[in-house]
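User: I'm designing a mutation panel for Olfactory receptor 149 and want to avoid disrupting the core. Could you give me a predicted structure to guide residue selection? Please restate the sequence first so the numbering is unambiguous.

Assistant: Good idea. Sequence first, for numbering, then the predicted structure tokens:
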Amino acid sequence: MNNYTSVKEFILLGLPHTEGLENMIFVLFLAFYLLALLGNLLILATILASSSLHTPMYFFLGNLSVFDIFFPSVNSPKMMASLAGRSHTISYWGCASQVFFYHTLGGTECFLYTVMAYDRFVAICHPMRYTVIMSHRVCTSLTVCTWLGGCVHGSVLAFLIFRLPYCGPNEVDSFFCDIPAVLSLACADTSLAQMVSFTNIGVVALVCFLLILTSYTRIVLSILKIRSSEGRRRAFSTCSAHLTSILLFYGPVFLVYLRPASSPWLDSVVQVLNSIVTPSLNPLIYSLRNKDVKVALRKVLFQVTHLSGL
């Protein structure tokens, strides 16, 4: 980090155009945050408790649930504290931590969705070799690589942003510290940091997206070769929840980071959707559209209610 930095704390300006609506937004965000935590904890507990879900597909879904617990916790508590009338300030290192963890987890999610797409590709296109290709060792290695890759991604971006000096204005035009809002406060030329961060995020998102697209192109071609309509329906149903989550993830990424011009209001709305709303929807997407999860969830809930009644 640069020794010439004199700013010790930043002021988060919060969500634009929400004056007078703080209490309503606080309740709404708190509801989504609790839904994300409880919903993903329930999905994770169901996967761990149900031997029928101890397969590669649900192993990766369990990792997604862990991610969806951590991701909204990066900026939601601070944002809700600000909405409740507490301090809008965040320390210099707190701001750096938000940038690091937000992009570490964002990169991890990107890699994880790619691995999940590959898992579906192997399951549908090579069903006879599925258990051999997606062995426990392979699944564990892929998962470790996704988290390590996300950590490297977040480290590079945080280093680029906070090696710059911050010596004057300290008002972050957002509800949390993110690259576009923080870079505009730097007291030095930010062109290199902007170019590298734009390229880094763009390359990671684009490569993962192309790999996912390739996997699903092969999947669709394989499904179309299935003769029975029931077989095609079942094959598509195993992929529908994953595709829905991918669309909810990539939409905000492209809108916020891969646009030439920045709009604080649009960025805030999209980042709220990405940070809080999507993690709270994923448990619903995967439980409502997946028969195995629904059956296992009912068993777990029945066992819990049975034990609590004793």
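For picking mutation sites, this is relevant: The mean pLDDT is 83. The chain has eleven helices and three strands.
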